[in-house]
Batch of 2 targets.
Target 1
Amino acid sequence: MTNEAVQEKLTTPPRDAALDGLRALAILRVITWHASGWSFTTWIISSVPAMFVVTGALLARSLQKGPAFQVLWKRFKRLLLPLWCYSIVVYALSLYFQVRTSAIWTFFLPFNQPTSLIASQWFTSAMWYLRAYVWVLVLAPFIYALTRRWKSLIPAVGIVAVVAFGIWNTDTTGISWAVGDILLYSTCTAAGMAWLVHGRPSARTLHYAAIAFLAAACGWLLYRQPLDGVVNNDHVLHLFVGGFWTALLLHFPNTLSSFSTTAVSRFLNKYPLSVYLWHSMAAWFFWQLVPKKIPTDIRILLIVGLTFAALPAITYLVGLFEHRKTGWFTLIQVLPRILLLAVILTFINVGPLSKKLDFVRTPLNQPLPPSAAPKVVKIDVEDDVKKFLDSSAFKDDTWSLRESEMQTILDNRTKEMGLGQTRAIVVTRDGRTWHGNSGNMKTFDQPSLIGSLTKTFTTTLIMQLVDEGLISLDDPVGDLGMGFKHSQITIRQLLTHTSGLSKYKTKNGYVAKGTTPLDVLRYVSEQPLRNPPGSYVNYSTSGFSLLGIVLEQKTGKTFEELLRSRITDPLGYQISTFRGDYGSIGFSTGGMMMTMDDLADWTRRYFFDRTTTKETWDWAMRDTTGMGAHGYCPCRNKTFLALGHIGGRTFASVDGDGTVVIIDTTGILVLDNYKKTQTFAQELRLVAGGGKKYLYP
């Protein structure tokens, strides 16, 4: 060992208690966000950057005292055993309930994020942090070597790189998002290492850093808003907000040091990994068990409090795996924990509370699972399309060449997806229109069945009656004049596919010719509900049939008369309607035929302009789109560039650039082609000059 190395070990500063206090505060905020689902909490003490700053300082301190391999081995030993304990539980539950998971190796060596659909991803969605942590650990010796030589220059370079990735929109989804994670948190780790190598920053340095980060965060918000209002969903914003809070809190080292001596802080710093791994599962259980009749905000606060209260029991059960002392795995240590676990399992599986637990679906009144990455349908744009987008023909805005490229995309996707015959329309915001036909598809003056796109017209009629005061969204449907047995179901629940009504089933899967809306009503009236009304989303064609009956009873006119007089005739659309034909219920759930040009105009009005024949609608797109009230986009809620609806063989959508895409085919656009349809539409958007902006109000 060199004299320089010996001297470095002798001068290693003692552990900074302020950093322990900072980490404890960060963990408290993480738990609050994950348990409550309140997005505003992500703006308060942006936790993960702060935790990686602490990680960097502690790693630097360890690397000053010992060889890199020994330091990493010690860290991995503390990480892997509690991780494997948690992973075995989650993976076993996933197998038992037969839900999809990522590869088994990701659960035990999380170099990629482990995922499982168990509990609607609540048990694995927060495990992205471990992926970032593992990669930062592997990179730590290199980051430390660079930081020791160039000190604060390394985190500064990291900040520039994170911002560059954000401006170029490189860190979007999938692998690129994971790379963005690693870059961001490696930068935070380097900042923590520079803290130790440089010595504690002066109050003036922290003061200027906090101001600079705050100004940068405000500037970035003018450039781009984070998805769903969650800071974590934008790497650059996460960096700036995290930097601001870290610098601000470190202004008060004595306060942080005092907090680090409290029982709460000591507890969290003793079991940080166990708390992080298990707290989301605990929160999920309380969301299932706490009565829904309690006012929402009070219920959320109660669930957050219960989650915190459960942490001592959790760490008593599994903390041995993380904080292992001599003789930790002995009968006297393990037996009481096994008995407590048996009591908990009995409590969960036996008695009235067991009926409230659904390990597959997430109730509507429960927040989405915690996650750091926006969930966007993966778009695999073909290489030939990418080349065109980089070509002079695209950059010079030569529309005739763009039309030729869109025809090529139409032909290729029709063949690849097995669609048989297809036609498509693309309309740009400035009114340029392209019509394409592949495989001898019918001409554009011939109408098509638009299937479930009919539901957007039904929703419009319902919302018009609401505006006129004839009905309220929270009105029960009543007995509908024929003793309907599920009279407590509301209009809102029918619109949002949360009524719990059973599907209208037939022996061969097709609806018999001549089936009437009353046949459907009588059938679902006799069937038990699939779930309590308002609890889960289950796409329901029978529910929209009931909405048609409600419209007729409230106005004294047929659905078809209302459709024509209130919407299609004033807009000049040529339509035809049917009931109980083409193997479908038809009627208000899927009984319209119209031309694709009229459908393109309707799509722009409905999803983009949000206008009916009279005035702009005042409905909250974020709160309803994706759950049926204003469209059932295949991309689900708040997760894709465009919004629209799919009707089995017909797809209609519009993006934030105002580009409308209509696809009509003799094949099937759902099921196996579900995601490919989105890629197909996105390629057409991009070539037309759209496909870049989210469609949010």
Note: Residues 382-445+595-697 form a domain with the Beta-Lactamase fold (CATH 3.30.450).
Target 2
Amino acid sequence: MKRFISLLFVLLALSAKAQTPLTVFETSNGLKTATYEEAITYYQQLAKDNEEINIQEIGLTDSGFPLHLVTLDLDKDFDFKKSYDKGKTIILINNGIHPGEPDGIEASMMLLRNYVQQADKKELVKNIVIAVIPIYNIGGALNRNSFSRANQDGPEDYGFRGNARNFDLNRDFIKADTRNTKAFYEVFHKVNPDIFIDTHVSNGADYQYTITHLATQHNKMGGALGDYILSEFTPQIEQKMKARNCEITPYVNVFNTPPDQDGFSQFLDQPRYSTGYTALFNTLGFMIETHMLKPFKVRVESTYSFLESVIEIAQNDGAKIRELKLARQQEYKPGTKHALDWRLTRSESTQITFKGYEGEKVTSTVTGQERLYYNRDKPFTKTLSYYNTFVPTEEMTIPKAYIIPQGWYKVIDLLKLNNVAFKRLSQDSSINVEVYKIDKFNTSKTVYEGHYTNNNVKVIASNETVNFRKGDYIISTDQPAARYLFETLEPAGADSFFSWNFFDTILQQKEYFSPYVFEDQAQQLLDAEPELRKEFNKKKKEEPDFSNNWYAQLDYIYKKSPYYEAAHMRYPIYRLVD
């Protein structure tokens, strides 16, 4: 009898393990998504029932709640460095960056449960570690409503796009205005993924597909890794999704125009976006966008199919992806030239088969004006031009090192959070460096994610001997973070720290002159410097506006004099090139 009772307890325990509660999505027949509390409770129970699952808190978010990381590791190491050294392929899935787009939240919960509890699926992840951020934007997830996704077909209620401080987190990956992003840095560098996936929902146009993909732009990723994304990874994803009766197409990057009108272009994932940020560390990034006009249940199932397809590719190509990642990293070395910004070229295109709906122009019953109407009674299959080639618009050579005065601690703090290696000067030193003077730039007229960004930046470079203080930072570019350093510290970079206003104080002059006093000093300067007098007279002769503006003339002389402050328009990050 005792033996029977013991056996019964074992069977009950095994049964309990196999019966990890279903998700909210499953129990509601695909109509609902989990709240933040329900999602975390689910993962906690999953970890309790399965020793191959681990859940941990990492960092803090703007909501006051910590970020969570859930890991499936059949070896039960839960040590990503150890998994990396074993040659395991590491996949990081980020969900709920926009909590009104919860498809990935639900798909990931079912994915981890099934791959730890079903023997056939468990076999597929022997050499793979899957890490999941259950809900990245916790503040947005707590802000539940049923109306902010005006065009979306389910779920019944969901979170809001903005975080606890109303930031769009998928614009914050470089500037890191939020605690969420700083916590993500800790997760990302801890996990060090080979493949990164960010799950989203979008509209933009109407078409037959439930899901679209947005890979890291292959030209921008560059090297053999960029070629692999274009020629191997993406085609494999498309083939595997088709085999699952869930066709996928490139993200349809249009607004209020049918995609078959002129074709459509790839979206450029600059470093402000998640996959643009992960590209700075040569991680293969993939953003998926399910179509908000499709039912929630179908969208979640499509997301699940995508994640399974990635796991299959990781099984076969994991070692290759790791090798390509490391090779691309080695290409960012001192003295090599690389792009800082890109533009789309329409001189090249790829022909793709696209399944859409006829877009018609009809009279709006609301405005009385012409409007776009997608006629679902008129589906089509056409060959369209897909423009996915980008060319550099700005290139620079990577210096041997950057020198950063310690007073710019906000920048230095972000470098530290991104695992940047550095040294500090042990004594006051005079060093010959390349210095940038900001020559031209434009500032946006409207606010964007809390910033009036700088763009179209042009600099004038010169070599000077600059005095640095003990404790200032020397950042070698011969390190894994080289590309991150290059694209954030070069002011002409599309998402550089200069672009995001980290150095705007240098753009404002701090000292001026009193004209009635400086008149005499200006005359003395012209008398003492014949070359200055020559340039000044030439400018008056050739430029009528300058000739008629007495203050501009005095200001010109002032800015050529020793009285003019060196810090004005002088970029405070220095390049060590020799």
Note: The domain at 2-257+266-330 is CATH 3.40.630.10 (Aminopeptidase).
